[in-house]
Amino acid sequence: LYLGLASDHTDRALEATSVAASKQVCAKPVATTLWPLEEIADLDALQLTTDIEENATWTRYQEGTLAAIRPLADLIADLPDNAAMLCGTLPAIGGVRPAQAYRMALTDPATGRTIRLDYSVTTLPVIA
After folding, report:
1. Strand 57-65 with 2-3, pairing
2. pTM across the whole model
3. What is the DSSP letter of 110?
4. Exposed, middle or buried: residue 75 (CB in 10 Å: 0-12, 13-18, 19+)?
5. Which of 37, 75, 92, 112 has the fewest CB atoms found within 10 Å of its own CB?
6. For residues 99 and 91, what is the distance between their CA atoms, to the nearest angstrom?
7. Which residue, 10, 41, 38, is CA-closest to 26?
8. Residue 6: which of 98, 87, 75, 83 has the closest Cα?
9. The pLDDT value given to residue 128
10. CA-to-CA distance for 77 and 106, rounded, in angstroms?
């Protein structure tokens, strides 16, 4: 088992109509680094941060530890072999809103190592 970092990006406008469709229309950016789960001493202590670009300035959007989401041990208990799973998110600081660029990090305070993921969004026009 490995732990990584990804974004379950959604189309906010479409989400008002269908959560499932809003997830299906967006790519899921994934970091290129994975940590063996057995190397992590305390899953709950791992720190997550997300910043968004608003008006050409980076703004903190999410911040907290994995203790604030559903326990990973519960989620992976029934995970089949060769599966991948996105496991939750933290509350948005200042409310949920779209942005043109995102940068996020998962940090292990016990080791000081960090997984990073940065990506930008291209909004496509709706074509009738």
Report:
1. unpaired
2. 0.89
3. T
4. middle
5. 112
6. 16
7. 10
8. 87
9. 78
10. 22
Q: Which residues pair with 120 in a beta bridge?
A: 101
Give the start-end residues of each E strand in the chain: 2-3, 35-36, 47-54, 57-65, 101-107, 114-120
DSSP lists the bridge partners of residue 51 as 60, 103
Residue with tokens 């899921």: 28
Structure tokens at 55: 């008006």
Tell me the residue type at 55. N
Name the residue with tokens 């670009």: 53
**From first to last of its 128 residues, what are the pLDDT tens digits of the chain?**
899 999 988 887 888 899 888 888 888 999 999 999 999 999 999 999 999 999 999 999 999 999 998 788 788 888 888 888 888 889 999 998 889 999 999 999 999 999 999 999 988 888 87
